[in-house]
Automatic annotation (TrEMBL):
InterPro entries: R-trans_p, ZAR1/RTP1-5-like_Znf-3CxxC. GO terms for cellular component: membrane. GO terms for biological process: detection of chemical stimulus involved in sensory perception of bitter taste; protein insertion into membrane; protein targeting to membrane. The gene is Rtp3. One of its GO terms (molecular function) is olfactory receptor binding. It is a single-pass membrane protein. Residues 21-127 form the 3CxxC-type domain. PANTHER family: RECEPTOR TRANSPORTING PROTEIN, RECEPTOR-TRANSPORTING PROTEIN 4. Keywords: Membrane, Metal-binding, Transmembrane, Transmembrane helix, Zinc, Zinc-finger. This is RTP3 protein. It comes from Alectura lathami.
């Protein structure tokens, strides 16, 4: 994991993959409020034998001065994310053809209420969402 990764800022020989709609659960470290989001973005930078990722965080909407929080993912969603990453590695580095329909949808495993809260999303603040 590398929180300094930036979209479209790649070292020579590296490839990029962005998972845009992962489902995650968050908990505020200050007030312990819990929320779910179906718009968790995960950026992968890949090179031969190596993959780095950055998970974009979200902040609590109830706290005055909230911190950015890391999401938790269900085991099923982690498996789907890794499946998609492997497919992208096979396509980008081994020339295995892939169709967009080959990627598995990362399922919403908890109820998500309301629209995406752009003002508390790290990805939105950085222009990724």
């Amino acid at each position: 994991e590398d929180d300094s990764l930036e979209v479209h800022s790649l070292k020579p020989g590296w490839k990029e993959f962005m998972e845009r709609n992962a489902s995650g659960r968050f908990q505020c470290s200050q007030c312990f409020y819990k929320w779910s989001s179906a718009k968790v973005h995960i950026l992968f930078h890949m090179c031969w034998g190596m993959a780095w990722m950055r998970i974009f965080r979200q902040a609590c909407r109830r706290c005055q001065d909230p911190q950015l929080e890391e999401p938790d993912f269900s085991l099923e969603n982690v498996e789907r994310l890794l499946h998609n990453l492997v497919l992208k590695i096979l396509e980008d580095f081994y020339g295995v053809p892939m169709q967009p329909s080959d990627l598995q949808e990362v399922v919403v495993d908890t109820p998500v209420a309301g629209p995406h809260d752009r003002s508390h999303c790290e990805g939105c603040q950085l222009g990724v969402c």
